[in-house]
Amino acid sequence: MIDRAFAILGAFDGTRRVLSISEISRITSIPKATTWRIIGQLTRWGALEKTEDGHYVIGVRMWELASLAPRGQGIRDIALPHLEDLYAATGHHVILAIRDGGEAVMVDRLSSPQAPEVAYRVGGRMPLRGTAVGRVLLAHCPLAEANEILAQGPVQEPGGMLLGEAEMRQVLAHVKQTGFSVVRRTAPSQTVSVAAGIRDGSGKVVAALSVITPEGAAAPQALWPAVGTAARTISRSLGYKPASAPGYVAELRS
Question: Considering the entire predicted model, what is its pTM?
Answer without folding.
Answer: 0.69
